[in-house]
Amino acid sequence: MNLQTPFALPDSEADDRAQLIRDRLRDAIVDRRLGPGTKLSEGEVGAIFNVSRTVVRAALQMLSFEGLVRSERNRGAFVANPTIEEARQVFASRRLIEPGLVAAACERVTVSDISAFRNQLEKEAGFLSQRGPSARRSEIKASGDFHLLLAAAAGNAILQRFMEELVARSSLVIALYGRSGVSSCGHSEHMAIVDALERRDVPTGQELIIHHIGHIEADLDLRTTDGLALKDALGI
Amino acid sequence: MNLQTPFALPDSEADDRAQLIRDRLRDAIVDRRLGPGTKLSEGEVGAIFNVSRTVVRAALQMLSFEGLVRSERNRGAFVANPTIEEARQVFASRRLIEPGLVAAACERVTVSDISAFRNQLEKEAGFLSQRGPSARRSEIKASGDFHLLLAAAAGNAILQRFMEELVARSSLVIALYGRSGVSSCGHSEHMAIVDALERRDVPTGQELIIHHIGHIEADLDLRTTDGLALKDALGI
DNA sequence: CGCCATAATATTGCATACGATTTCACCTGT
DNA sequence: ACAGGTGAAATCGTATGCAATATTATGGCG
Fold first, then answer.
1. Relative to the CA of B11, which of A62, A140, A215, B48 has its CA 20 to 30 Å away?
2. In terms of Cα–Cα distance, which of A62, A38, A39, A43 is closest to A53?
3. A141 and A93 together in one domain
4. Which stretch of DSSP H or E encloses residue A137?
């Protein structure tokens, strides 16, 4: 467990340590420092963050609601291992919700929203030009953050929370089933979407985001692994 | 607190008492035995269900994630009091998601799904013909269950969970802002939707559900209460 | 040599204990 | 009579302890 937090929580004035631990764990999961299936022992996590199991349990329960962690009774909590079916459902949900976000965002987007988008796009470009696993992770995170920015711009707190969950789960799915690592073509698509938002061009924006989600999903290997694949596994 | 559970949990062999308590509380909230703003004290709830505060806290945390309960640090948990803005967002979310559910459900409904729908419709009719506050509550619940059935028929577990949250929150919103109590016209609309599902008629089904959601929302009083209303309040 | 039964160990589920914070009642002073 | 302050009671946040369950190690047996 490399959470780069060897000592007690330094920050912040904001109480609620469970939330803080949840955020740390979530970050670690979505940028794959904690891989699917990793056990998150209450005692161990508590020791790392210098808190009792009580507050760790609260954090793990939150992550379990978000679908990032699977809790088994009397066995503990593990980083989720989404099945292919779950992966499909994540993307089906995104295909349903994100065009709606684009429509809402087109209506109410402000100049400061747009500049936040541009800022995010520059960050993406920065990570793209770098090399190394750390930049890779940052790139994945930045790519997800773009969609979260879209959700925020839509101005619906409920849908925003749904999207937070979907984006986080997507990153798990990509970790498990991603083929080429990162779909680097995503950046230009994000740019085109921002352009459409700025023009308040709903149909174009929706078409772009649908294609974009399609590209992300197309980069996954979601072939069902039953029947024939079993033989393959035995053959090896 | 009238949760009609004066003694220890009778059922069931199924472990996880926190989940059971969450379900009980949620039922009480969505059928308005617990009104918005009601305090849910950990100790009190624990005494009712004969469990420690630990497990009550877990249940309340779950409800707080679902938006049915608002938790304030060092103050406790209260049945949520959605604002008008939140109410609008709940219905905006439903307008986005439910047509997608109809489309998915049309593709994959089975005959047993249809009969489940018909069964549900009969239940609704039964409550409609009765009088009294208890039948009223059952009617509200049954009306929500119809939409949950739709979500289940769509076959996407993630969207199903989102809908569970949205339906539950809708019932809170109706409790707060409902005008005529119950939109009794809903029943015939539900029937028409089931007919469309059976014919696998996506466009009609989507149009029907959009109108249906519109009718539910139209029965609310979501006029914003700022500016002028302040004067009114002072005038009284 | 491998396999199953059994004991030792670790981990979770839950209750309880205690300090911290809030709430409420009461009281005093103006 | 009322505003504001003070103290008691209630409630929450968190740590810890114990029983129950799962996991791992050990040893006997086929």
1. A62
2. A43
3. yes
4. helix A133-154
Local structure of residue B131 (DSSP, 8 states): -
Do B151 and B207 lie in one domain? The reply is yes
- HEC string of A108-133 equals HCCHHHHHHHHHHHHHHHHHHHCCCH
Question: Chain D bases under 7 Å from protein CB?
Answer: 11-17, 21-23
Of A16, A65, A157, Cβ closest to residue B89: A157
Nucleotide nearest B39, from its CA to each C1': D11
Mean pLDDT over residues B96-110, rounded? 98
Does A225 map to a domain?
Answer: no
pLDDT at A228: 46
- Per-residue pLDDT averaged across B60-70, rounded? 97
User: What is the tally of structural domains in chain A?
Assistant: 2
Whether residues B62 and A65 touch (CB distance < 8 A) is answered with yes
**pLDDT at A74 > cutoff 90:** yes
> Of all residues in chain B, what percent carry a pLDDT higher than 90?
74
Residue nearest to nucleotide D16 (CA to C1'): A52
Strand D–CB A23 distance below 7 A: no
Q: Which residues face B79 on adjacent strands? A: B69
User: Is A1 domain-assigned?
Assistant: no
Could you tell me whether strands B39-40 and A76-79 are parallel, antiparallel, or unpaired per DSSP bridges?
Answer: unpaired
Q: Is B40 helix (H, G, I), strand (E, B) or coil?
A: strand
Q: What is the CATH number of the domain that holds A120?
A: 1.20.120.530
Domain boundary among the residues A53, A79, A105 is at A79
CA of A28 to C1' of D23 (A): 26
Q: Which domain holds residue A169?
A: 84-218
Output A78 or B221, whichever has higher pLDDT. Answer: A78
B207 and B98 within one domain: yes
| Per-residue pLDDT, B1 | 44
